[in-house]
Amino acid sequence: MLIEGKVAIVTGAASGLGAATARHLAERGARVGVLDFDGERAEAVAAEVGGVAVQVDVADETAVDTAIGAVAGHFGTAPRIAVNCAGIGPAARIVGREGKTSSDLFERTLRVNLFGTYFVMSHAAKRMMELEPLEDGERGVVVNTASVAWEDGQLGQSAYAASKGAIASMCLPAAREFARFGIRVVAIAPGLFHTPMMEGLPKETTDEIVANIPFPHRLGLPKEYALLAEQIVTNPFLNGTTIRLDGAVRLPPR
């Protein structure tokens, strides 16, 4: 699918991978809906890319539906591109000190990461189905964000790994379901990236993390995630798969 002139929505687009993707798609000519829980920062990114900002909690299905509708209303047509970057990454042991369990954290993580992704995919695809097919029969593409923790989650990442593993697992059945409508679904599983989450770590911690990345021997750049998202949108034969983007890293147990 050619990106130029298409409407795209990007969640988590006020920072990190989402902001880089919003900027990159706009550079390629997309009209971008910038969706984020942080409305003020979303407004700043939208102003930068000439898009529209919508404050939304992706864990709230009604709010998601309203937000996607607002983007469609602003641009006069439903999005053909949806990129899910919104997510959280809290860490906790299943059973911590003094026998304290982390059920609340587990539920919250799945609510934001998994349910949020599912809600956005559902309501974006629902609108894509109503669009006229393009020349090759395609109506839209959904890009979801998993994580390498899906396959090699570390100690304390049970909630995060479960949420990202579910995103990877639902990629193929979702792609099969939407195939007859000409809608593709692909997931990206990023490794260790230079995002706001990483920027808050001490240098020695960051150095330890980078030591595990074979090549390039550095953290991934958000722009590199955006480049892969672009490739997924523009390559019509990419469908129903999860792609690791990780510099050949395999996470150690801790």
UniProtKB/TrEMBL annotation:
> What is the recorded name of this protein?
SDR family NAD(P)-dependent oxidoreductase
Q: Family per UniProt?
A: Belongs to the short-chain dehydrogenases/reductases (SDR) family.
State the coiled-coil residue ranges: none
What does the organism's lineage look like at the top? Bacteria, Pseudomonadati, Pseudomonadota, Alphaproteobacteria, Rhodobacterales
**Which species is this UniProt entry from?**
Tropicimonas aquimaris
Which SUPFAM superfamilies does the annotation name? NAD(P)-binding Rossmann-fold domains
- Give a yes or no for keyword Ribosomal protein in this entry: no
Q: Does the keyword Transferase apply?
A: no
Q: Which InterPro entries match?
A: NAD(P)-bd_dom_sf, Sc_DH/Rdtase_CS, SDR_fam
Q: A Pfam family name for this chain?
A: adh_short
N-terminal signal peptide: none
Highest taxon of source: Bacteria
Q: Which UniProt keywords apply?
A: Oxidoreductase
